[in-house]
Structure formats: C-alpha cells, structure tokens
Amino acid sequence: MHISFYGAAQAVTGSCFLIEAHGCSFLLDCGMAQGGQEADAHNENAFAFDVSSIDFVVLTHAHIDHSGLLPKLVAQGFKGPIYTTLATQDLLEVLLKDSAHIQIMDAERAARRKREGKKHERDVLPPLYSLAHVARTLELVKAKPYGKKFEVHPSVQVRFQDAGHILGSAIVELWLRDAHGRTQKLVSSGDLGQPGRVILRDPTPVQEADVLLIESTYGDRLHKDNASTLNELVDIVTRTVPHGNVVIPAFAVGRTQELLYHFIDLMQQGRLPPVEIFVDSPMAVAATEITMHHFAVFDEEAKQLMGTARQLPDVQHVHFIQDVEESIKLNRIKSGAVIISASGMCDAGRVLHHLRNNIGRPECAVVICGFQSYGSLGRRLVDGVKQVRMFGEQIDVRASVHTLGGFSAHADQKALLDWAGAFHPAPRHTYVVHGEPQAAQALAKELRSQHGHTVTVPELGERFALQGLSANGS
C-alpha cells in the first residue's frame, strides 16, 4: 500500500492524494491549485496518474481547491463513485457550476480582448471542463452521513467526521486491509475549522490512527481571539462607512455566512450602526440557502439565532444581489456600504469590479478575512503592494487594507496541535500537508516536540509506502 502526493504538498491548495490499497486505487480529493500562473499551469497539466486506474474518489469538502478538478477527471474518462457528505453534495452543484462558468467567461473575455488588440494581464487558458462535465460529475456523487462507517471496496472502509471548516467538511477515517487481512487506519484531517467559531460545530476529535495527514495552512501562527477580531471589524466599519465603502472579498461558502451572522448580531447589539450590507455573489446566495437547510450541523449558539438566520434574505439592511444589472448599480454607491463578494482570493468574480471602483479611494477600506495563496491578487494586497493591474488598467492602491485572521475558517497552530494531541498513542507516521513550506515545517516541528510524532513534510509527487500495519484496525 502506498500514498502519493499530487497536490497540497508544501502548498495550501490543489488537494489530491492517490492511495493504492489492496486491489484498488483511489483519490482523496481532486482539487484545483489556486493563486497565479503556476497554479494555472498545474491545473492545465495532465494528471500525474492514470485516470483509468482510479476506482473511486473520497472527497473531504466542496471548496474548489479540494473538488475543482473532479469534472476534469470525469472529462478524461473517470466513471467511479465520488463519496462525500450530505451537505457537500448540495454545495458541489453550486461550486462546480460556478467554476465552469468562470473558466468559460474568462476564456471568452480573453478571446475578445485579443480580437480587439488589447493585452491581457496574463494568458487565460481554455476551460478545463464544461457544464456538461459538471453534470456528469454530480451524477457520480454518493452522499453519506457523519459518523457511520461504510464499505467502498472489500479492502477499504470509510467514515466521515465533522471537521468544522465549512458546511459539510469532513475528517476522513480510512481502514485499509492488505492481502493478509491486516488493517491499518489512515486519518486525513481535511481542512480543520477553528474551535469556537459561530454556526459550525468544533472539529471532532479522533483518537486512533496508524497514519495521519494533517493540514497546516496556519501551522506557524495563532489567530486573534474572536472578541479582538470583532472589535477590529467594528472599528474599521464605523470609521469607513460615513465617507466610503468597505469591500470584503469572501469565499462564498462558509465565510460569507459567518460574516452575515456577525454583522446582524453586531447591529442587534447596537455595536454597529445600521449599515447597508450587499452580498454580491449568486453563488454565496445559493450557498446561504443551502446552509439554512442543514440546521442539524449548526452549533448551539447558531441555533439560538436561527429565528433571525432563517429570514436572512428579508433582514433589514441585508441585500442579496443576483443579476448583473443590480451588481453594476453598486458602482454608484460612494459611501455607507459593506460589499461582500467572491472570490475570496480576489482572482475572479464580481469582487474584482468592486475593488476596481473602491481600491483607489483613500476613504474606502478592503478587509481580507481568509487565507490568500501566493500569486493571488489578495496576497499582493496583504503584502502591501501600491499598485495592482485589473482589467488591463494599472490602479493605485489608496484604500486601507486590513487583514482579519480571526475570521479564518482554518484552525491555527494551537488548534491543530490540540486536535493532533487527541491521538493515543501517536500515529506511527504523520504527513503535514496543505501548508506553505514555512507553515508546514513549523507545525511538523511542534508535532515532534509536543506529541512525539514521526513527521514528514512531503514534496509534490513523492510516493511513500504505508508502513506500520496493525492487526485489529480499530
């Protein structure tokens, strides 16, 4: 039995791990790399494995950096089942269709600019897949509930546990049986949420594993506590909206719903004045509706606010923008607005238009509240660039740019170590993934010193034998 790392190895995005077990081969995630031309090239390249050899896919959650290449896999002949959670099945339809649509629109825009003799800030590649490929992908999805073990192959059993990252996100427990009937347990953290966040439950502790894959997006740092983060948000908004707008690039799934929760709660408490909040992302609107349908996975605090949350589209001062004409009208608003729009890394979608119209105005503010991959526009803003190129224009960055890490959907270093500390005994081997090199190495060091883990930070394309078979596979 072997595991190969074809994505998210010393990088945050592009999750894709090939596991070869007795009599079968399968993928754990099949996601897009995100952030710049290197990511585009990675997505465009041929898969590093034989697609025809893949028997099934186990998917941790719906974010595009975990699911976004599934339609490409299907386009190249994959016909096996895709196992995931109930809520992820609902979200996949929204996210994968949006991904295909963005690719198609980017390609059409690039072709139009080329015909007009205009330069594009970077080459846009042909779409990786079509809406028809997305439809075929969705037909292959088999949804399973949290907490129930199920067999996907005579050599493989699976159980999903709540990862607390986004709606439907899962920690994956895998029991792998070899030709001699011996079993070892592999656990993948997927993306873990930060404990104590609103709406979702905390990540489920897991106590036993022979092999562990653990994410490390924030493996080298701590988040600000929730109270400090909310104080900073209140300060930014109250200082900005009398004279300008606040633009918040936010992931449509998870981050947008959490921000709405906080804005409504802060206004109800009187900590924020009535502010006009515009959610300008059809995908975010759809994701919010799906979120409301999965009340069972909410934490108790969120359930108490459900009376308000169920009426989100009708809450005073919260406006859900659907069509393009409504989105364009937001350009006329010069002050008093909070605009929440996708994409979260500022690389596509309607948020680019809102940034273009506000980022050059010193009375406005941009609030970054999620991880920004190297090469993305969001990362450049966080790093303090003075100019950005958007839609072929060079724009001076005059708006204030704020980073609120406390809103991250990812666990920080302490939360990752606390979760890893639940394993007794420690896994025989731990692989640190989903992190840039500095973050991954920092977490690996702490796992060794605090919990006695034997740790590897794999490189892209590396393949390892899964050692340390146990007899019982408990």
Indicate the topology.
Blueprint (H helix, E strand, L loop, with lengths): L1 E4 L11 E5 L2 E5 L8 H8 L11 E3 L5 H4 L2 H6 L6 E4 H30 L15 H9 L1 E4 L5 E4 L2 E7 L7 E8 L5 E6 L22 E5 L10 H15 L5 E4 L5 H15 L6 E5 L1 H12 L6 H5 L1 H4 L8 E4 L2 H6 L7 E5 L9 H8 L6 E4 L8 H6 L4 E4 L2 E4 L3 E4 L9 H8 L8 E5 L3 H15 L3 E2 L6 E3 L9
Parallel strand pairs: 3-4, 4-5, 5-6, 10-11, 11-20, 12-15, 12-16, 13-14, 13-15, 16-19, 20-21
Antiparallel strand pairs: 1-2, 1-22, 2-3, 7-8, 8-9, 9-10, 17-18
Can you describe this structure in just a few lines?
This protein is 32% helix and 21% strand.
What would your notes on this structure say?
The structure is a single chain. With about 475 residues, the chain is an alpha/beta fold. Helix content is about 30%, strand content about 20%. The chain is built from 15 helices and 22 strands. A 7-stranded mixed sheet has the order 6-5-4-3-2-1-22. A 7-stranded mixed sheet has the order 7-8-9-10-11-20-21, with helices on one face. A 6-stranded parallel sheet has the order 14-13-15-12-16-19, with helices on both faces. β8 (about 155-160) and β9 (about 170-175) form a beta hairpin. α4 runs antiparallel to α5 (about 130-140) and α4 packs antiparallel against α8. The model is unreliable at about 470-474 (pLDDT under 50).
